[in-house]
């Protein structure tokens, strides 16, 4: 069976086309050791709105740091 099209550009692979459940990709396994899954789990507990608000606060912090860095470079 060939994958089902969900729209013109994406297709969903049929179950037979997927890797077997016991297959471990060595590249993925190498990266997994460096991923803090607790952070992912905590973020997934948030609603999409809460995640967006958290992202907005993070970006405000990034812009604040960038402005502080630019101010230091102007003075120095």
Strand order of the largest sheet: 1-2
Tell how many strands the DSSP assignment holds.
2
The succession of helices and strands, N to C, reads EEHHH
Seen as an oligomer or otherwise, the chain set is single chain
Instruction: Please give the radius of gyration in angstroms.
Output: 21 Å
Pick out the low-confidence regions. none
Q: Can you tell me the overall shape?
A: elongated
Q: SS-based structural class?
A: mainly alpha
Helix content: 55-70%
Largest sheet: 2 strands, antiparallel
As a percent range, the share of strand residues is 5-15%
Supply the number of structural domains.
1
The tally of helices reads: 3
Instruction: Give average pLDDT, whole number.
Output: 86
N-end to C-end Cα span: 66 Å
Please provide a written account of the structure:
A hairpin with a 5-residue loop joins strand 1 and strand 2 (11-12). The protein has a two-stranded antiparallel sheet. With 76 residues, the protein is mostly helical. The model has no long low-confidence stretch (mean pLDDT 86). The chain has helices at 26-32, 37-45, 48-75; strands at residues 4-5, 11-12. The protein has one domain. It starts with a strand and ends with a helix. It is elongated.
